Amino acid sequence: MASDTITKSAHDFSFKTIEGQHLPLSSFAGNAVLVVNTASFCGFTRQYTALQDLWQRYEDRGLVVLGVPSNDFGGQEPETETKIKTFCEVNFDVDFPLTEKVRVKGAQAHPFYKWAAAELGAMAKPQWNFHKYLINSDGRLIEWFSTPTSPLSSRVIKAVEAALPH
Predict the structure, then answer these.
(1) CB–CB of 137/31 below 8 Å?
(2) pLDDT at 8
(3) Which among 33, 42, 66, 124 is annotated as catalytic?
(4) CA atoms 31, 157, 73, 38: torsion sign
(5) What is the mean pLDDT of residues 105-122?
(6) What is the pLDDT averaged over residues 46-51?
(7) How far is residue 142's CA from residue 159's CA, in Å, rounded to a whole number?
(8) How far is CA 139 from CA 61, 135, 159, 163, in A?
(9) How many other C-beta atoms are found inside a 10 Å radius of the C-beta of residue 89?
(10) C-alpha to C-alpha distance for 123 and 1, rounded to whole angstroms
(11) Which residues 6+ apart lie within 8 Å of 111 measured at CB?
(12) Whose CA is closest to 128, among 141, 139, 115, 144?
């Protein structure tokens, strides 16, 4: 994991895929990435549909949607990775990448989430499920969107289009 003192970009961090494989964010260099902490049993779970739509709309232009399951808010992601993956595929036809379940808040938060909070400030920390961070093709964290902000809102679309590689 990257040390806070030498971290230059989101590309310095790694997750594991929902299948358990190493997933360095550097593998997305040259692409815009929307990182979203997700939960299967949340009132905002329907955003999976919008995230999948956003992914299909912009994948060929260089957008990666990365779902990051987390059980940090309301215990709304209690399932195993296998059950989470099946739930997403069966109910929302999700085929964008998903990570293993991680913490996104507090002292045990994944290093990416600690870095993102340090980069963008306390207001940009996830306050609930389906918080979104936008990373540009160089790995810079350029924007965040709160839980209620739809992935298909004009604000998100405008930011994504500006972040896409040219």
Answers:
(1) yes
(2) 83
(3) 42
(4) negative
(5) 95
(6) 98
(7) 9
(8) 16, 6, 15, 10
(9) 12
(10) 24
(11) 1, 2, 13
(12) 144
**Distance between the two ends of the chain, CA-based, in angstroms?**
30
Global pTM value: 0.95
The answer to whether residue 5 scores a pLDDT higher than 80 is no
Residue 7 pLDDT class (50, 70, 90 cuts): low
Give the separation between CA 77 and CA 52, rounded to whole angstroms. Answer: 19
Q: How far apart are alpha carbons 148 and 39 in whole angstroms? A: 14
Domains of the chain: 10-163 (3.40.30.10)
Active site residue 88: no
Structure tokens, 24: 């360095």
Is 2 a residue whose pLDDT tops 90?
A: no
71: which 2 tokens?
């059980």
* DSSP code string of the chain: ---TTT--SGGG-EEEBTTS-EEEGGGGTTSEEEEEEE-TTSTTTTHHHHHHHHHHHHGGGTEEEEEEE--TTTT---S-HHHHHHHHHHHH---S-BBPP---SSTT--HHHHHHHHHH-GGGS--STT-EEEE-TTS-EEEEE-TTS-TTSHHHHHHHHHHS--
Among 125, 127, 122, which Cα is nearest to 112's?
A: 125
